[in-house]
From TrEMBL, chains A, B:
Transcription keyword on record: yes
Organism, scientific name: Myceligenerans salitolerans
Classification of source organism: Bacteria, Bacillati, Actinomycetota, Actinomycetes, Micrococcales
Protein name: LacI family DNA-binding transcriptional regulator
Keyword DNA-binding: yes
PANTHER family documented for this protein: HTH-TYPE TRANSCRIPTIONAL REGULATOR GALS, LACI-RELATED TRANSCRIPTIONAL REPRESSOR
MF-aspect GO terms: DNA binding
Pfam family, one: Peripla_BP_3
Domain called HTH lacI-type: residue spans: 9-63
UniProtKB keywords: DNA-binding, Transcription, Transcription regulation
Xref: SMART domains: HTH_LACI
InterPro entries attached to this UniProt entry: HTH_LacI, LacI/GalR-like_sensor, Lambda_DNA-bd_dom_sf, Peripla_BP_I
Amino acid sequence: MAVQGTRRPTLAGVAERAGVSLKTASRVLNGEPNVAEATRERVREAATALGFRRNAVAADLARGGASRLLGFISGDIANPFYSALASGIERVARDNDLQLITTSCDEDPERERLLTEELLERRVGGLVVTPTTGDHARLAGELAAGTPVVFVDRPASGLEADTVVIDNRGGIRAAVRHLSYHGHRKIAFVGDNPEVWTFRERRAAFLDVMDELGNRDAQRWVRSGAHDAREARSLVAGLLDGPEPPTAVLAENNRVTAGALRALADVAGGERIALVGFDDFDLADLLGVTVVSYDAVEMGRRAAELATSRYDPATPPRTVTLETRLIPRGTGERRL
Amino acid sequence: MAVQGTRRPTLAGVAERAGVSLKTASRVLNGEPNVAEATRERVREAATALGFRRNAVAADLARGGASRLLGFISGDIANPFYSALASGIERVARDNDLQLITTSCDEDPERERLLTEELLERRVGGLVVTPTTGDHARLAGELAAGTPVVFVDRPASGLEADTVVIDNRGGIRAAVRHLSYHGHRKIAFVGDNPEVWTFRERRAAFLDVMDELGNRDAQRWVRSGAHDAREARSLVAGLLDGPEPPTAVLAENNRVTAGALRALADVAGGERIALVGFDDFDLADLLGVTVVSYDAVEMGRRAAELATSRYDPATPPRTVTLETRLIPRGTGERRL
DNA sequence: TTGTATGCGTTATCAA
DNA sequence: TTGATAACGCATACAA
């Protein structure tokens, strides 16, 4: 048992106690072959007696190259979406004997840059990033140096790199068609900030499908700027209170869905207004909300697989697109 | 720009290019004083020209002692409770210039042990653990060696160490009294497995308060074994379907609450049965569920503060108990 | 203000 | 089957 003040036992200490050289002790403790069984036993005993625990920091340095660490830069780890990503990444990390460093950049480009730098200083063997709107060209050198940098949920700007996204357009298409099939024409699209890539993708798809369905002026049904549930609530409230209230609301993400639900609960007859949300959420079944669902854990897993697979920087970047799935609950209208 | 195959630029390289010694380059790049401004400038230029990025692995090894890493062993990072903890820990880590390694042990003692070992090999400067039921006496030596190990949400067994918990008993007391105040006598307590410390605490409090209120036989209202929402649903369904259905259900955690909600939705008149849940959750307001709430992010923060504050292993372990808060929504009965 | 020398605890090379 | 010795890249007494 180590005691405070006392140094921790080292491999050299184990070797000395076992009466062998450093290299032999190393061989034994790393399970390498070509060591006599008797020697092996003596080293093991010495290690246990001293309470030896290998120093992974020293090992990483000696080995050279990357450390056995993987980096993940999320927007906010407390957000269920990001923690689902983290969960998928973690599993792949585990399978590859890597430890995962998680960080949150609060959607702040400058903070993302700082975190990237810190993780690269740690010589991570791979980096998974949910990119903010900033430019990522600065990472070109690192990519060329062989560090796999993978972007997830949205692509980086100014850089060609491996990317994992979902089929946003397909998801929106399914949602709008679902509502249309159930007779809705006045469909409002409520979302986050237009700076966000996913918002733009989803809005574009919304306009496309509405156009295909004969609604050439869908732009007037679009509302943006709802970054949290509270803002979404007032945005939807405004729609319902306006001159031409929609009969259906398409919420661009789960925060908007939550806000929309509250707005609908606030007005008389709100339960007769249909609601479809992008992103599934807990208890959506109870609230009878039809959603566009996808597997965020799988998304993390795929990203981590790209980030851990050794690759040739010369090969063109890969893009993985995951499918979405419409989960109809009722007829698009909520049944409370 | 580094190119693949090429080694990464080192401090020595920067020093050489700037025509100074290693130590001087180190001084400049670490912002230490006592360097001529001209020298400083030359070193900076050399660093930029070479695309130098310090190697944190080497720095940690050279500095000796612990690495600038913090470890967190959660049950499952995809679980909102654990990711809230992670969020709090992450903020403290950031403030202390530490990087956070997050792991999930899936509530498996053996896996927790393995993860602990791996993190200690990484020489983490602190370790936050949500302990499983296994014994933790093996960590005594590490504690004595000066690594702050902090347990959060429940105490470790077989080891005296810093711990952060919430006031489970107070929370249950408030919940039962709330229901009692609103006229309920037949209150069922539905929870997870009795192996889980928090369950035992909460059940004990439930029985105490029921006893105080004159219900001496509350044991028959206790149901356990609901580890997920599905199991909770059938457990509650069984209660409602039994010979003497309760008029109120106290759910021991948010998974049970979700299951109970579904069970109540399944039966006629279910909306007249009161429900109070331990743990607040998203959209609880919409569903009209009264809850016992507490701040999981704060819990993580407090744990991380204990794990980062240098302390004397000789001082007795500290226990931080965080308050809970009853959030009444309606009269304890749901208003849908 | 600047530099020299040594150590951190491993892994890896190459020889014995 | 084993071992001596040199990296790995930086920090830090101590000197100049």
